[in-house]
């Protein structure tokens, strides 16, 4: 075996797939899709082109944002997540940076195309979200809970974006509020998990302690669960199909709370699964009886 072949074997394909955190990014795209379905109901099929473009924009935005986050947080991840491809040295930082630039470029190109169909508001919202994301990466995330709040707002903005695309903001309002709280809580849990690596950041767990931060994160999750139930009754925004699935998601949300204090990494992963089920619930709640 020559040296070039040996070099190629050092980069497993599964490590390349980690760039941009595709599963997390897929949740962003699916969140936009869920908002479009919630806003338009059964008529969403008539809007298949702008809805498809909006979903792809959300997915690409997630890929770009996650990649630049990993690029800039490499020193933190060497302590908190040394097993990941970038901090472990399996992949080069430049690859993450180039990937982020390309994904942002593709995202903006699709957004421009989308704006020619759905109006300039779509383009303005994505540009605004991009500015916020870059601001977060370059400094806001170091400012106590400000970064956590911003990430929650970004999640809510994705649902609002979907509502704008189909002109159905009323139905997506509850989704936006619930997602804001859930992501806000999840970001605090991530800070608890990364507390040893956050040497230059004033994160909430470092200020008030991991236990108090965990209690606050748990309270945000509980409120998000309560709001998700209110979407069925008394607001009656979604149908019975929503209720069945959202109860499953809420059980996972509640079940993750003890893990916040025992195993933050596992709690964060469980919350991600719960969010996926909740997104499916939002979709089914508008297209099923």
What does this structure look like?
This protein is mainly α. It has 13 helices and no strands. The chain has helices at 3-9, 13-16, 22-40, 48-72, 74-80, 93-118, 120-138, 146-165, 169-193, 204-208, 210-230, 240-262, 264-287. It is globular and about 50 Å long. Residues 1-7 have low confidence and may be disordered.
Set down the secondary structure blueprint:
Blueprint lengths: L2 H7 L3 H4 L5 H19 L7 H25 L1 H7 L12 H26 L1 H19 L7 H20 L3 H25 L10 H5 L1 H21 L9 H23 L1 H24 L2
User: Element order, helices and strands?
Assistant: HHHHHHHHHHHHH
Overall pLDDT metric: 89
* Main pleated sheet: none
What share of residues are in beta strands? Answer: under 5%
Q: So how many helices?
A: 13
Oligomer: single chain
- State the share of residues found in helices, binned by percent: over 70%
The SS-based structural class is mainly alpha
Nearest-angstrom radius of gyration?
19 Å
Q: Key terms for this structure?
A:
about 290 residues; mainly alpha; 13 helices; about 80% helix; globular; disordered N terminus
Concise overview:
With 289 residues, the protein is mostly helical.
């Amino acid at each position: 075996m020559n040296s070039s072949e040996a070099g190629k074997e050092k980069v497993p394909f599964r490590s390349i797939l980690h760039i941009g955190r595709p599963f997390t990014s897929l949740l962003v795209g699916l969140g936009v899709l869920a908002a479009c379905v919630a806003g338009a109901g059964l008529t969403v099929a008539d809007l298949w082109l702008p809805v498809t473009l909006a979903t792809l924009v959300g997915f690409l935005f997630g890929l770009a944002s996650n990649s630049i986050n990993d690029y800039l947080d490499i020193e933190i991840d060497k302590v908190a997540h040394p097993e990941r491809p970038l901090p472990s040295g399996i992949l080069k930082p430049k690859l993450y940076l180039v990937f982020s630039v390309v994904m942002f470029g593709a995202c903006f190109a699709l957004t421009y195309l989308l704006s020619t169909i759905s109006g300039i508001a779509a383009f303005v919202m994505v540009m605004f979200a991009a500015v916020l994301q870059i601001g977060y990466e370059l400094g806001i995330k170091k400012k106590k809970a400000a970064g956590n709040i911003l990430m929650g707002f970004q999640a809510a903005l994705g649902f609002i974006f979907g509502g704008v695309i189909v002109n159905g903001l009323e139905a997506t309002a509850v989704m936006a509020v619930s997602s804001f709280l859930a992501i806000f809580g999840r970001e605090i849990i991530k800070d608890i998990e990364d507390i040893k690596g956050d040497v230059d950041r004033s994160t909430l767990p470092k200020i008030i302690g991991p236990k108090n931060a965990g209690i606050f994160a748990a309270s945000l999750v509980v409120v998000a669960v309560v709001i998700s139930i209110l979407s069925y009754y008394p607001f009656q925004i979604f149908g019975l199909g929503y209720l069945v699935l959202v109860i499953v998601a809420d059980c996972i949300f509640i079940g993750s709370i003890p893990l916040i204090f025992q195993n933050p990494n596992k709690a964060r992963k469980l919350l991600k699964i719960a969010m996926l089920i909740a997104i499916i619930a939002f979709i089914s709640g508008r297209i099923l009886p």
